[in-house]
Design goal:
The complex is a heterodimer of chains A (166) and B (100). Chain A is mainly α. Helix content of chain A is 76%, strand content 0%. Chain A contains six helices and no strands. Chain B is mostly helical and 100 residues long. In chain B, helix 1 packs antiparallel against helix 2 and helix 2 runs antiparallel to helix 3. The radius of gyration of chain B is 17 Å and the shape is elongated. Chain B starts with a helix and ends in a 13-residue tail after the last helix. Classes of the chains: A mainly alpha (166), B mainly alpha (100). The interface between A and B is large, with 81 and 74 residues.
């Protein structure tokens, strides 16, 4: 019961802060609202029984991603850009696309009944994740580390001084 | 135990908000944040299914998604700062350099 109440509060926080990411005028405010949304999502993960994933969400998203965004905002100064506001027609169309996607997803959700499953047995989730990704999912893990390496080299190439020509 | 449909509905609403924001805004940083919101919605769905089925694999998949997403964001922000050096702003509404 109390878990449901906490879930509802966290869901409202996630929704409100995500909407604020979209509609707030200053980019820094969007970044901070995104951070709030990620933290509340970590709380939802905790309620859903994923302690380790909640911790990783807080470390990676609320930690490094938020810092990355704030640094990007500081180095690019996006507030000073002479961005044109999108036209009214475009705004209405964008909101409409969002509403149509939401209606479709909700319709699919209402028509679908989850198959009954046996109640999951109690397992040590963190140890289970470690066992899984270091035995059965070892190849995806290595592919993932190559992705990280490629991104590292790509960013280093992109940020080389004096190589961007006007 | 949270009903599965609640979590899926939250994910659907979040995805729609992210998609609408991606179309609404022209600032590339805010567009990246909207992509993050959409990925977050997908992660929520994965976690809800993992909790419902009692499977560990779903949670491990969320870990991979989080990692790949952070890597993608690092690359994207490097592109944004390079674009800022090239054009002087981060506004994608005027990004027509490849057209000429």
């Amino acid at each position: 019961m109390s878990a449901t109440v906490a879930w509802l509060v966290l869901a409202l926080v996630i929704l409100a802060s995500s909407v604020m990411v979209v509609i707030s005028r200053r980019v820094v405010h969007s970044a901070v609202y995104l951070l709030v949304s990620f933290l509340a999502t970590a709380g939802v993960f905790l309620i859903l029984g994923g302690e380790f994933v909640a911790a990783v969400q807080m470390i990676v998203y609320a930690g490094s991603v938020a810092v990355l965004f704030v640094f990007a905002v500081m180095t690019t100064r996006p507030e000073g850009s002479n961005a044109k506001r999108p036209s009214a027609v475009w705004t209405v169309a964008a909101v409409l696309v969002g509403l149509v996607i939401l209606a479709e997803l909700s319709a699919a959700l209402l028509a679908w009944r989850p198959p009954p499953v046996a109640p999951p047995e109690e397992v040590d989730i963190t140890a289970g994740i470690g066992n899984l990704i270091f035995t059965e999912w070892l190849v995806p893990l290595e592919v993932f580390s190559f992705i990280i390496l490629a991104v590292l080299m790509g960013v280093a190439v992109l940020r080389r001084e004096g190589k961007v020509r006007r | 135990m949270i009903p599965l449909q609640y979590s899926l509905l939250l994910g659907a609403i979040l995805f729609s908000v992210g998609l609408a924001g991606l179309l609404l805004r022209r600032n590339s940083l805010v567009m990246l944040m909207c992509i993050e919101i959409m990925v977050n919605a997908a992660n929520l769905n994965l976690m809800a299914f993992a909790a419902h089925r009692g499977l560990i694999g779903g949670q491990a998949l969320v870990l991979f998604v989080i990692g790949v997403e952070a890597a993608e964001l690092a690359a994207a922000l490097a592109v944004v700062t390079a674009y800022r050096r090239l054009r002087g702003d981060v506004d994608l509404g005027s990004a027509d350099a490849l057209r000429d």
